[in-house]
Every structure is written in C-alpha cells, then in structure tokens.
Design brief:
Elements: E1 2-6, E2 17-21, E3 30-40, H1 42-49, E4 64-71, E5 83-86, E6 96-100, E7 105-106, H2 113-118, H3 120-133, E8 141-144, H4 150-161, E9 165-170, H5 173-181, E10 186-189, H6 193-200, E11 206-211, H7 218-224, E12 225-233, H8 247-251, E13 256-258, H9 269-284, E14 292-297, H10 301-309, E15 316-320
Helix pairs in contact: 3-4, 3-9, 6-7
Amino acid sequence: MAQVIQVSSTGGPEVLVPTEARLADPGPGQVLIDVAAAGVNFIDIYQRQGVYQRDLPYVPGSEGAGRIAAVGPEVSGFAVGDRVAWESLPGSYAAQVVGPADRLIPVPDSISDVQAAAVPLQGLTAHYLARTSYPIRSGDTVLIHAGAGGVGLLLTQIAKLLGARVFTTVSTPEKAQISRAAGADEVLEYSGFAAAAKDLTDGAGVAAVYDGVGKDTFDESLRALRVRGTMVLFGGASGQVPDFNLQRLAAGGSLTITRPTLVHFVAARAELLERAEELWGWIADDRLDLSIGQTYPLAEAGRAHEDLAARRTSGKLLLIP
C-alpha cells in the first residue's frame, strides 16, 4: 500500500484527500517508481476544478522525480535504482507511481531529486516557448507575464541566454525583486503594462508576449505587441480567455497568436530528451537557476493548491511523500 492523494469529486482544495492505495505491478513497457518529489502545477488545479475533465476518482499530478523500484516486461534502457524524472505520468501525487518507461527522462548525477522534480513540466514548457512557439532571436524584446512564477523565472533566464531584452510583470515589490534577480531588464506592474512596454521600446512594442495569466492580461498583451508580433498564450491562471474576433489581429498590426500546450512539443521521445538534455546542461553549467518556492508534505496537497491559486508563492512548488 502507498499513500496517494485522491479526488472523488471536482471542487475546491478540500477534495484532495490523502488515502492509501495498492498499485498494480508494472505491465509491459512500464516501471514502478518510488516518488521522491512531485510537482504542483496550475493544470492540476484546472483538473481538480473540472475545467479540464478527468474520470473520477483519480490521483492528480503528472510530474515528479524518483528512483525506479521495479521494471516490467519489454522495458529496455532502464534498471531498478535508476534516477528518473517525468512530466506526464498520471497519478504522481503519490508515494509510488506506475507508468510507461518511454516517458521517463534519465537524471544526471549532478542534479538533485528536488531539482529534477522542478524541471520537467515548467522547464520543458519554458524551453518550447522560447525555442519553438516564438523562437527568440538575439536582440528581441519580449514580455513575460508572472515573472516570479515557476515558468516565468525559467523563461526569463532562457530568454536572456538567447540574447533577449526581457520585460516581466509581477504583482508585488517582493516578486519584482525575485524577477530582477532572474535577469529581467524591466519589471512592470500589471496595471498599464502595455503602455509601459511601448514607452520602453520607443513606441514599437515587443516581439512576443508569453502569457500564462490569460483573461486578465490578454487584451493588454495584444496592445503591447509590435507590428507582426506574436502572442503566445500558454495558460489561464486568471481564467480562460473569452472568444474574440480574429480581425483584431489584423488591426493590431498583422499579429500572430498561438495557444500551445506541452504535450505536442515532447510527443516524440527524441524531442523530449533533446529538450531535457539542454536544460540539464544549463543547470550543470550554473546558467539556469531553479527556484524552489516551497515544499509541502504530500498530505498537504490542498494547502499547496491554495497557495498556488492565490499567487502567494514564487518559483516551483513540490510535494514530498
């Protein structure tokens, strides 16, 4: 038996209930993993609320790091004791998880379990945003919302590594300090950020906006863009963006908008490993600093959700079984 967090009905953080469950033995192509740490992400909140539907009951979470405890048939390249991380194993709010070996990312010895658990979802997200959704070029000016959040901190650092001038938005002076420490060139308040971005670019606007906030920032994000700028909408922390008239993109300066999600940028194992290996390399070279905002005992998953939703934290939140 292993401790898990179970959701039997959608709702608030109170539906995250600690319980005991017996996991099935790993089947063909699968492994059993002892979870060292599990990541807490906004997608977990959306699923708990029913915005993204899951069959009930379920164990939330999809991200973490740990050691392989058992290997099923038809698995090659992994052995008991290997350290691994993952971004897409359902049921990761648990002391143990079973999942397909081909979704696992080998973890180098130079990376700790906590670091490894903090990288997969947010690190890979920041990587595909900066490398693929809008490929940052040296000399670009970009705007990153929620600059003190988990993705924001990593995306800011990656953008600077790629030679960008980076503006961020934050909600408090404390978070402004955190964002500046990550390399932001200008830290803006949410109120009036589009006008500020235009002023700082001599009226031109930014090449791209990376927006994980959603409803509350969307309209002004479009106004912050330069002609032929790109809006990368990758989340909805403030709520989902309502339907809008695509003609606004023409009127705004032949703008481009994309709504990417991580699964389509790591579907091929080669691409997953290529992205992860570049992230591990940046961390090992001390060019990418991981900010662990807070850790919680597994049983306090509800409190972690409350803190994340209320934006009381910065950096990555982790559950420790």
